[in-house]
Design brief:
single chain; 241 residues; alpha+beta; five-stranded antiparallel sheet; four-stranded antiparallel sheet; 28% strand
Length: 241
């Protein structure tokens, strides 16, 4: 698995000192967020339009009531900030892109999903921790990073193996789970203060048992997608005792 590395376009630019240690991950995420001077508009992204369709790998959580309840509590506190709040059915952790829809044939997408079966490792547990963010979003920190980074690396290797465009390099990957998108540029301190006040909320434990290959699009104030393939993770081997 590739090591994560400093990258000026990643957030945080420096990865945590230990990708398995919750304290290190939370410190890196929160320190970077707490040092922001201004927010930016999340939706101002070069290359995106209403017609853009991109094939992505996501972790999705539409059937997790505990996460939905936690996100709703957080979003209630965020409401005065005038962010675009992410519906429970839209909560997701972005892994990586496979390519834009006009770069990939239906056959290539089907082959990618088929080849991925049995290659993505075992199911694993994550914890979503309130709360940090970036200039363009408010988001949970997730721990540990290692199994998610391993997924990214494996998917990137599959894209290379099949000659597909793929996405960003694994060394700049920073796992996170968004709850709200910024739609304005302004001083960040009021957002930072609100987010800091929510860090006493309990974390949420998540079981990751599948990865979704989707066709992603933007709609007003949200990302939406059509599910192309759901690839199950393998079951971990029982431990002999």
């Amino acid at each position: 698995m590739p090591d994560l590395a400093y990258h000026p376009a990643a957030f945080p630019s420096n990865p945590p000192s230990d990708c398995d240690a919750p304290a290190a991950i939370l410190t890196a995420d929160r320190n970077a967020f707490d040092q922001l001077a201004r927010t930016k508009v999340h939706w101002n992204r070069p290359g995106w339009s209403d017609e853009t369709r991109i094939v992505y790998w996501l972790l999705t959580f539409d059937e997790d009531p505990a996460l939905a309840k936690s996100a709703a509590d957080i979003q209630s506190a965020l409401a005065p900030l005038d962010y675009d709040l992410i519906d429970a059915v839209d909560l997701h952790l972005t892994l990586t892109r496979a390519g834009s829809r006009d770069q990939l044939t239906d056959s290539e997408i089907d082959t990618l999903a088929s080849v991925a079966v049995g290659r993505l490792g075992p199911a694993f547990e994550l914890t979503a921790h309130p709360l940090a963010g970036s200039a363009g979003a408010v988001r949970y920190s997730v721990t540990p990073w290692t199994p998610v980074v391993a997924l990214h690396a494996t998917l990137s290797a599959l894209h290379h193996e099949l000659g597909l465009p793929g996405g960003k390099s694994t060394e700049r990957f920073r796992p996170h789970l968004g709850v709200a998108y910024s739609r304005g540029e302004r001083a960040a301190q009021p957002v930072i203060d609100t987010v800091a006040s929510l860090r006493a909320l309990p974390p949420v434990d998540l079981t990751i048992a599948h990865v979704d290959l989707v066709e992603l699009r933007r709609e007003p104030g949200r990302y939406a997608w059509d599910l192309l393939h759901r690839v199950p993770l393998t079951q971990a081997e029982p431990t002999e005792g």
